[in-house]
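Problem: given the chain below (127 residues), write out its structure.
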Amino acid sequence: MRNLARVLSFPFAVAALLLGGFGALALHLPDHALTGAARGGFSAVAQALVALDVGLPRQLASLLEAWTARIPVCHALLGVGALLSAFAFGAIGGGASVRPPAKDRGDAEVEVKLDKKQARKVLKEAQ
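Solution.
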């Protein structure tokens, strides 16, 4: 179940990182060439989505820029995207994918509880 959550969180991580990065660019470097290229990319994607006629407004690119180019929004999107990508790649969230296999955990002895019959058998075999 955790692997499914990791796989499903990855697209949201990418979207949050892209939107947050674009918002940070538009906020801090509004006249930079990289910001203009990002605007062109977002404009092309927005026009393609509007052309699919899925009910999105025609000014989607400018709405996204106005919404993401705010200080709390762009930084929150970057933070959420970073956390989701760390979860998607298994850096946080625990689970079996980040634990070392039992043989790599060291030479610590494992205590096994035996009933009386098993204990007698082990003692007899040891002699």
